[in-house]
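Troubleshooting log. The previous structure file for this entry was overwritten by mistake, so regenerating from the original sequence record. Sequence copied from the archived sheet and checked twice against the printout by T.R.
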Amino acid sequence: MLAATLSCSPKKSAAKSVDDAMTWAAANLPNSTADIVQAAAREGHLTLTMLNQGGNLDVLKGLISGFNKRYPFVQVEFTAQSTLQLLNKFNAEVAAKKGTTDYLNFPSNLKTTIALERSGAILPFVISQDAGFPAHAKHNGFWYAWRCDYPATAYRKGALSEDELKLVRHYAGLADKRFKNRLGIVTVENSATSSACYTLMTRADPSVWQGLVDNRPRVKPSSAALLDGLLAGEYDVALLGGMMPNIEAARQGAPVEFGVSDPYPALYLPAGISRLAPHPNAAKLWQDWVMSVEGQRVWIEVSGAPSAREDVGEKAWIENQPWFFKDASKQTELDWDGFTQRLPEVVSRFQKDMKSG
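Regenerated output below.
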């Protein structure tokens, strides 16, 4: 678990900072009302419990810096955790009826998140720019998609022929026998992997999944381990890892290129305010700002990844790379009821197929 505290040392009086924040919010984010801004100033603190962005704390630090330009009187502290750590921590707070977290990521399994909503664990707050989020990236003002992830297909630069570069754009191409013993894959416990496997096992030509199995992928325990194996030369193509580790590595100059093979699901990562938040007004300011066009532009800049919003007006670093591939027409929306019901079957089949494969 990683933790850090960021705060902005105000260059003007606290009262002037609050007045400026109220004026700016009234013009730009009217749901952050004057009383919320004033109450947040009295709270003076905000605690975030967020997913670990591939180990890159600069993403969260960059967002906090952007937030503090608007609200310098709120000191922000965060922890970056795995999904399991995060959920265990939050469930413990709910059970104890005592919160230490103000704002947090929820499980990418939206059915689980909606169950938390129905249990009263999430504090509703409709953001000022609610209309900017598509319907599948929000729910009733309780949560908004912190970001959208996709199962990535990565390869080492120079490892593939021109024909193979075309084949990797589609899972049917990756099932080609020329990729036998040249693939790595993340274990099915990974969210991106399980949702993609559900799509391939239940929504695609069955011969495609069988072809992948027959190519005998090497199974890795995490997206980071999958990338490490790729860069170490254990295989030429890495399947179903998360986008963020690949983006970070590519931006730092690692010899890796990647995209999103089709067909593929979108994995929305929701976030919202804890019902037990000790600083609920500061959390409302954060949610309103970080989900705004301004906040999402900061996200794009610091992460290199796209926004879940459709109206930000800027392309992410990854979308500007000539080698990146993703066919929007091949995206499938997950049927969360079906996915939840069939997940044990998907996990069992993955374990059986990849062990025997």
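Residues 5-11 have pLDDT under 50 and may be disordered. Archived copy saved in two places this time.
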